[in-house]
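Q: What residues go here?
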């Protein structure tokens, strides 16, 4: 990656982990979020709400790389659209107002763009027919990035991340420890995840590739059955394994994700995971007191 100015829009957990890597590379990094206190050392803060609209007067000139890693602050469709579609457009168009615009755009999307729900394997070429609004909004944002990149002859990347976990993201651990996790006797429910540090490292890796454009899947090496994850956590925590319930009582609802995502393209590009499966990531979290 050329040494230039990088703007990370939505500099939260993943964005901050990426920012530390870029600062170490010697890049000039801007971190955009509503409340920028606590950004990593060396990151230049931008206190901006992505949903405010026109940003041409407040964004820095000369940004060569935009990484859009924002997260919606609520789980409804309006909140998703306000950030992932309108916020994304606000930042890209704002950068184009104050300069030539970014020559590289990376959007952190989600595996929710896939609608497969019977344990099928999916990759970057698989059909995208999301069952919920979150996947539809992500696809709309991906299309905007691809269209902008094509029209302006720049590089556009969408990285479809699985479920992000890591320090502070202890929902599964808390469910198992509290005895609230249950497993169905029905067919297995497949899950896909990625540690926050590997998510940031994957973005960093794509930025350094000669051609990291297009669509990529960001998940670890092992899609895992939900109950297998629960049982492993229970053993590590020293608690009873989740109770089994009749088929359908705790199984996936009709629209619940149940697919196995392949990271082959990412691995074939040379990327290697620090946490290749859930075991390495959760073992470290539990050892550190979650």
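A:
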């Amino acid at each position: 990656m050329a040494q230039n100015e990088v703007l990370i829009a939505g500099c939260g957990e993943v964005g901050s982990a990426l920012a530390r890597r870029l600062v170490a590379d010697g890049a000039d990094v801007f971190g955009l979020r509503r409340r920028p206190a606590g950004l990593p050392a060396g990151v230049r803060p931008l206190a901006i709400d992505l949903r405010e609209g026109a940003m041409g007067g407040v964004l820095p000139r000369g940004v060569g790389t935009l990484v859009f890693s924002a997260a919606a602050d609520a789980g409804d469709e309006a909140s998703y659209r306000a950030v992932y579609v309108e916020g994304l457009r606000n930042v890209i168009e704002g950068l184009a107002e104050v300069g030539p615009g970014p020559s590289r755009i990376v959007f952190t999307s989600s595996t929710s763009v896939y609608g497969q729900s019977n344990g099928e394997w999916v990759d970057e070429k698989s059909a995208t027919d999301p069952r919920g609004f979150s996947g539809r909004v992500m696809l709309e944002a991906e299309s905007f990035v691809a269209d902008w990149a094509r029209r302006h002859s720049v590089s556009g990347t969408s990285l479809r991340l699985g479920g992000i976990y890591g320090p502070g993201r202890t929902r599964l651990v808390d469910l198992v420890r509290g005895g609230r996790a249950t497993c169905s006797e029905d067919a297995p429910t497949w899950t896909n995840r990625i540690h926050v540090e590997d998510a940031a490292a994957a973005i960093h890796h794509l930025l350094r590739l000669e051609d990291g454009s297009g669509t990529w899947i960001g998940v670890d090496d092992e899609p895992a059955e939900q109950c297998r994850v629960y049982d492993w956590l229970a053993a590590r925590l020293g608690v009873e394994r989740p109770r089994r319930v009749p088929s359908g009582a705790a199984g996936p609802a009709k629209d619940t994700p149940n697919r196995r995502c392949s990271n082959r393209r990412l691995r074939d590009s040379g990327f290697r995971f620090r946490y290749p499966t859930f075991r390495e990531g959760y073992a470290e979290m539990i050892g550190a007191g979650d």
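A: Context that may help when evaluating the design: The mean pLDDT is 92. The longest strand covers residues 104-110.
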